[in-house]
Design brief:
The protein has 76 residues and is mostly helical. It contains one helix and no strands. 0% of the residues are buried.
Length: 76
């Protein structure tokens, strides 16, 4: 009886150790994927900021051109 209980306990401990190893591997994989996603997010945010700056500069140039056109004919 005691021997059977001990064997069962050993099997349960082995199962838990295997599950723990699997979870550790999954955790490492998820951590790596999270780090990659954070890097990609940061890169995309920087790209967005650059695009916004370019759009702002373009809008300012267009506005200056519109103001020049609206000012009327230039006398020579």
């Amino acid at each position: 009886m005691l021997e059977a209980s001990l064997s069962q306990l050993e099997q349960l401990v082995n199962d838990l150790v295997q599950q723990n190893q699997a979870l550790l591997g999954t955790n490492q994989t998820l951590s790596a994927e999270l780090a990659q996603a954070k890097d990609e997010n940061e890169s995309l945010q920087l790209s967005l900021m650059e695009q916004e700056e370019k759009q702002g500069a373009t809008a300012a140039r267009i506005q200056a051109l519109v103001e020049r056109v609206s000012a009327g004919p230039v006398s020579a």
